[in-house]
Amino acid sequence: MQTATPHASVRWRYIKQHLFFAVVRLSAALIALALGGLLVYIFLHGREAISWSFLTLPPTDSMTKGGIMPAIIGTFYLTLGAIAVALPLGIMSAIYLSEYARQGPVVRIIRIGVNCLAGVPSIVFGLFGLGLFVVFLQFGSCILSGALTLGVLILPTIIGASEEALKAVPQTFREASLALGVSKWQTIFRIVLPNALPGILTGSILGIGRAAGETAPIMFTAAAFYTVKLPSSIFDEVMALPFHIYVLATAGTHIEATRPIQYGTVLVLVALVLGVDLIAILIRSYIRKRKRW
Amino acid sequence: MTRTFKEQIIKRVFFLFACVSVLILGLIVAFLFREGLPIFGIVSVREFLFGHEWYPTFDPPSFGIWPLIVGSFIVTFFATLIAVPLGVLSAIYISEIAPPAIKEIAKPVIELLAGLPSVVLGFFGMVVLAPWLQDTFDLPTGLNIVNASIMLALMAIPTISSISEDALYSVPREFKEASYALGATTSETILRVIVPSALSGISTAVILGMARAIGETMVVLMVAGGAAAVPESLFDSVRPMPASIAAEMGEAPFRSDHYHALFATGIVLFFLTLAFNLVADYISHKFKEVGSGTL
Predict the structure, then answer these.
(1) Which of B28, B210, B256, B260 has the most A C-beta neighbours within 10 Å, making it the best mutation to test the interface with A?
(2) Does the residue B33 lie in any domain?
(3) d(Cα A272, Cα A71) in Å, to the nearest integer?
(4) How far apart are CA A59 and CA A41, in angstroms?
(5) Could you tell me if B206 lies within 8 Å of chain A, comparing CB atoms?
(6) Contacts of B274 in chain A (CB under 8 A)
(7) Which of A248, B72, B116, B170 lies at 20 to 30 Å from A266 by C-alpha?
(8) Each residue of B245-282: pLDDT tens digit?
(9) Is the ipTM of this complex over 0.95?
(10) Taking a C-beta distance cutoff of 8 angstroms, is the pair A255, A88 a contact?
């Protein structure tokens, strides 16, 4: 008996280990199944709706037939505008935080500010855009208001990625440049920034993916229920893919009849966002493999 | 002299750009208050927060957002209950157990899934999960707390898993080796050494996941059902704060009481998520590990 006890306890420890591993594997499998199943389901149902005319024609017959071209164009403009706003601001902020900032209360406040901005709910960005751009600055509901709102929303993403990219440039590069008598600003502009560029690019592509998929921030600031004409200026309202999905799925009078169009639009949006993110991730893994500093 | 002067100016310019984020945060607060505060001329803060009746379009209207607050907390609570175990366990799988080939793929895939647009999850909950719940449990509607919690959990899992995995990965190798050297099994090492060491990172992940869930709009707008009443069962519909703002802002007349009340709801939501984020920031700094010698 006495010799059996340690054996039994060892065996029990390994049984516990197997149980634990089983639970862990099960959880991972469950998540893979749920999220993978969701994507496969959307692909299988959306595939039938996708055709050349679906992508290139505007909706017809009160949005029960036709394509989604205006929504694709609208999302394109909004995303382009958002990145044009966020990229310069984000890179400049990141340069300060990475190259100039010293540990201290001011920098701490800036960092907390960036983190908190990243956590602001998207609907609150929508309210902010409505209050500032649409109402106070009187832009109205238009591409400009929506792009500015989305730009503010993705700013923390861009700052985070850019700072990481700048920090990854070896300190010796800076020291070598400074030792040659080059000024700090020139060192940043000629040495640090070019080396950090691919990383910054990755961050901005991730920002594009985020901006393209957001609905709540553009509901009151840019998105139109339905417009026939394509936007001719930044002060026009536009249709957008995410908002189009929401409208068709909840507010239409023919919700069941337009299901195929809904699935098609969802597939286009998912392919767009995940495709863009995938490009960013591939670029990043390429950089990480290639760079041997 | 001029060169130093120029450098100083350039530094200042970058500093100003770095302040933009803080400035925007300030502007968000300013504009939420500008458009939201007028409601408190009509109802008291107490009535607004704890009033049980949200009938903004009735005559006379009543602006009590308690049911909306309860709705937000309930779906967030149940989403967390589902997402935390699954998210953390999957992080343990990727970081400690998975074979290298799976590990290499799983990490970017999870990151990819974190970017899934929320309107897509809302749509899926609406057209797939809702009819299934309705048939299986014989309910009047499948758009309810259970549905919203499941879809929110699916949305929060990649966030929780990804940040937890980073935390587990950064636990120093020596800890693991020391544990093995003492004869501990892999599971004992994971549960008693690695997870406790990574606990601050995992807590941050959980709080950020919760903050994402409570502030999420499209999922709750599409699948929570939209009933502005304090729920009595898990299969009741609710109307979380973001859903209420998103659904009603389009109909609320400009600068009406209803419009101001929705902005005031935005104030509550903003400070709630701000609190979550500050706590996450505090935890991740307070318990930050420096080198392998500290714990």
Answers:
(1) B28
(2) no
(3) 13
(4) 24
(5) no
(6) 116, 119-120
(7) B72
(8) 999 998 899 999 999 999 999 999 999 999 998 998 88
(9) no
(10) no
